[in-house]
Amino acid sequence: MTTTAQQSTPQHLFDEAAFDSDFTKIGVRRIAGRIGAEIHDLKLSGSLDDAVFAELNAALLKHKVVFLRGQGHLDDAEHQAFGARFGKTVAHPTVPAREGTRIFELDASKGGGRADSWHTDVTFIDAFPKVSILRGVTIPAYGGDTVWANTAAAYEGLPEHLKQLAERLWAVHSNDYDYGAQRADIDPSRIAHHQKVFVSAVFEAEHPIVHVHPETGERALLLGHFIKRISGLSSAESARIFEILQNRVIRLENTVRWSWRQDDVAIWDNRATQHYAINDYGNQPRVVRRVTVEGVAAVSVDGTRSRTRTRPEAVNDEQIRQVIAQSA
Ligand SMILES: [Fe+2]
Q1: Ligand 1 mean position, distance from CA 12 (Å)
Q2: How far is the CA of 23 from the CAs of 19, 50, 86, 326, in angstroms?
Q3: pLDDT > 70 fraction of the chain, expressed in percent and rounded
Q4: Looking at the domain that runs over 88-327, which CATH code has it been given?
Q5: Judging by DSSP bridges, how do beta strands 37-40 and 65-68 pair with one another?
Q6: What residue segments make up the domains of the chain, in order of their start?
Q7: Quick one: which of 88, 104, 131, 326 is 20 to 30 A from 292 by CA?
Q8: Selection from 241, 320, 265 nearest residue 74 by Cα
Q9: How remote is the C-alpha of 191 from its chain's centroid?
Q10: How many CB atoms within 10 Å of residue 59?
Q11: Which residues have CB under 8 Å from 107's CB, separation 6+?
């Protein structure tokens, strides 16, 4: 039985409240309270009108992750061309790109494609990516959602004394992090695959735990699973402080969950978010492809820039393909 109020209020009036009136050239509908919006009636391409792209970028900076349904017209080339509107597109530093592109494919059937722990992309380099654009190519019938968390809201929510502590801390991020230890019931072959491919070359960067966003000026927590330790602390102390701050990031109030359909696109501001791909779809096929846009080194609240500690001399796709072939 419905109430009088529900009967007299058309559904579209409920929806109106979700629309973000800051934007006039694109339709932006909020999904969750602190992060996430869906963009309506927009066909992504490399040749988007400048004013439309400016609104899209503004919506991304405001909502941290935006979603678009029905982008089936995008092939790899157009996906990459759209990504280039944000800046220089870059391949993953250690995982081979799809032939002839800089696209990073996550294919669950190939063993390396389950990003089921909280992270910000590629924080093991100093100038980690600014934006990631993920396209749903093959989506399971059920399961396989992705969750994003707002790291600026997490910082804002800290009590003042924890903000002050976090602002002084730096952390070492590495691709050689403890992959298996974070997961229960992990298939040992996945750990072996990860070690051979992803850690084929070790990268390490040191970032401030609180960084100032280069476009919005917001302060945000920079954490996630690539952190190896907090600078100047023992591993036990690092783990405890990491847990306190990371738990703030992933509070459900700071998150939005997206249920994928084929041809969806998710665009996230990698400087203000973490994400987690839920590994609950069993052996169903799942393929998503990512275009990644180069960022700049993070900057602490006192203006100090992130630094690279370790970077291999030469890593190329062919070397990595050989490693994969040897591990098969
Ligand atoms: Fe990721």
Answers
A1: 35
A2: 9, 14, 19, 51
A3: 80
A4: 3.60.130.10
A5: parallel
A6: 88-327
A7: 326
A8: 265
A9: 21
A10: 21
A11: 113, 286, 287
Residues 6 or more apart whose Cβ sits within 8 Å of residue 313: none
> How big is the chain by its Cα radius of gyration, in Å?
20
Taken as a whole, the chain contains a residue count of 328
48-88: pLDDT as tens digits: 999 999 999 999 999 999 999 999 999 999 999 999 999 99
Burial level of 260, CB count in 10 A (0-12/13-18/19+)?
Answer: buried
Question: Rounded to the nearest 10 degrees, how much is the dihedral formed by the CA atoms of 227, 233, 238, 244?
Answer: -110
Helix or strand or coil: residue 55?
A: helix
Alpha carbons within 13 angstroms on the beta-carbon side of residue 304 total 12
Could you tell me the pTM of the whole model? Answer: 0.87
- Residue for token digits 């960067």? 205
Rounded distance from Cα 117 to ligand 1 centre (Å): 9
Active-site amino acid positions? 119, 121, 275, 290
Could you tell me which of 51, 46, 50 has the C-alpha nearest to residue 82? 46
- Say how many Å lie between the CA of residue 54 and the centre of ligand 1: 25
User: Distance, CA 313 to ligand 1 centroid (Å)?
Assistant: 24
pLDDT digits (tens, 9 = 90+) for 128-162: 999 999 999 999 999 999 999 999 999 999 999 99
The closest alpha carbon to 108, from 73, 137, 147, belongs to 137
